[in-house]
Every structure is written in C-alpha cells, then in structure tokens.
Design goal:
Rossmann fold, 7-stranded parallel beta sheet
Length: 387
Amino acid sequence: MRTVSILGSTGSVGRSTLAVVDAFPDDLRVVGLAAGANIELLAAQVKKYRPELVSVRTDSDVPKLRAVIGDAVAIVSGSKGASDVASMPSANAVIAAIVGAAGIPPVYAALRAGKRVGIANKEVLVAAGDVMTSTAREHGGEILPVDSEHNAVHQAIRCGTHQEIQRIILTASGGPFLRRELDTFDEISIEAALAHPTWKMGSKISIDSATMMNKGLEVIEAHHLFSLPADRIDILIHPQSIVHSMVEYIDGSIIAQLSTTDMKFPIQYALLYPERVQAPFARLDLAKIRTLDFLPVDPRRFPAVELAYEACRTGGSMPAVLNAANEIAVERFLAGELSFPAIVEIVSRVLERHAGKVAPIASVEDALEWDRWARNEARGTDVAVSR
C-alpha cells in the first residue's frame, strides 16, 4: 500500500486527490494533511481519513482545529508544519498543491527525505527548478507532474528515449478570451476573467489561464522536468482541452495523451505509477467530441507567453521574479486595482528592472529572496492602463 501526504488538502487538487484515495482504498492511505484557512473542511477530512499528522496555516488555527477533532491527531502549523507533513517518515508519496511560493519549502523537505512528489504547484519548479531537481537526484527523491499537461508529456515520453525526443508540445485551452476583440481587453471584468471555458479552477490559476501566463510557466516547468531547452518546447491552443499535451519524436511520430478534463486522472497516474489500474472515473467518448482543433498562439493577445519564454532562456533568478511579480499582479487585479492588460504590463516592468540583477538560484533561500524582491516591486508598480 502507498501512503500519502497531501499538501493543500482543502483545495481543488487536494480534494481530487482524496477522491482518488477513495477510489483505491486497497492501494492508497492518507497519513498526512496540510491545509490553509478552511478549518471546517480540514476537520471533516481528518475525521474521515484519520491521518497521523495535520498542519494548519498559522498557530492561531491550531486550537480551532483541536476544538473540533480533539486529541487524536498531532497538529503542527506554518511553513515548518507543512514541511513536517511533507517529510514524515511514514509517507512514501506526497501530492504538492500549496499555491505559490509557500509550496517551495515543503516540496524541498519531501525531496530531501527521498519521497515521490507529485507536483501540482507550477511555482515550485519555476522559481527553484534547479534546486529541486538536484535535490531529488542527490537524495533519491522523485518528481512526477500532476499538472495535466506535464503529466501527459510524462506518459508520452514512455514511448521513446530522451535522445529520440524532437520537441514537447504543450496544449492550452486559450481561456475565456481566445476570440474576444483585442480593443475590448481594457473592459474585461474579474468575473469574465474567472470564467474558464473547460476547467473549474481556483481564482489565481483561472486568471493565469486567461492571460496564458500559466502556459508560459509550464514551459519553464517542462524545461526542468524533461531537461529540454525552451526552443524545443512549443505551445498550441487546443480549445477542447482533450489532448493534454504531445511529444514529437525525431522520426516525425507525435504521441498524444487524451482524457476527460478531470484532475483525478493525472493524480491517479502520479500516485500509482508505473502501474495502470482500472479506474471508476468518466471515460472519453471520441465519437461525441468529433473535432479536435489546434491553433497557434497569438502574441498580441497573449504577450505573457513570450515573457515566460525569455525568462526561461535567461534562467537564474529571472523565472522566480516572473512568477512572483505575476502572483502580485493577479492579486491586484482580483482586488479591483488593475485592468486585465495591466497584469502583464506590471510583470514586464518588474522583469526589466531585474535584468541587470539576474543571479543563480543555488538554494531555496535564494529563490525565496528573489520572490520577496519581485513581490515588493510588483506591489509598488503603477501602470497607465485604467479599468
């Protein structure tokens, strides 16, 4: 039986992970949970799954949870608490779904402890990819992608060797504004930007999908996961979100992975790999879909993509700065402070200011230091794009 710790258990990925655990009770058991402020849901999860260790976001949340669940489970808190859950000896697999830079320390702790880590948090590899991959190699850890795109690539790569790969093709839905008139982007509302056409996701990633910054971050993530340069990682817009990504081999063959738009598929794959197990989840009916469309990325509509490619080519601290500046810009948009086009404009300005400061990321502390710098810069940056 595989024992699992879940970082971000009350979020959408965490809840999907628990649904996978429910589907495979003879194969998977939860031993650790880490969550944020949703104490009510976390308490229900603790009562159902009876983990050995639980982490909450702050010290003040400990008595709130204790009042509901009693003394049966040990409770820790903060970044150290999440790292304790990630590295606990009884867990041999970790699903990492804590949003943002807060996910970096616990993933690092899990890899140092030699765990298999299913990463659903793009920011970990974007901001500290070199550190994470080298730590996994040194300590016997394993990184498996839970993002549907990278998980698809991981599956397609099983059809050949690394030397036979010509390029990776990441697919993107195009978000809610794929066909919207460009001269109306200043008028985009928060509600419109959150209305993803195919996936139900949290607010931050929904906005990233609307700008397609998420796809740019995925290019950087793929660079670290699959050891390929940016110029061998392409993006195609695929509105149906059925082909999750593809790998083209040197002989011209293209291997694609298809499934319904359900995070339980990549989570199941990451937890039970290399085995494939009969699953109870909804199957794909290609006869009903009938058409699969693919379109190039329009750089005028999605300028965030090229910013991410350039950050990947530059390397060092630039991807960490890109990610952190974007998080703050999205946060400000969701707070009603910025227009939709201003999100990418702020990120661009912060990257310009960082261009002469790029430094290697040799440790988690390096990544977090540049993350803090970029956040402060993005908070203090005003743009002339009005809502």
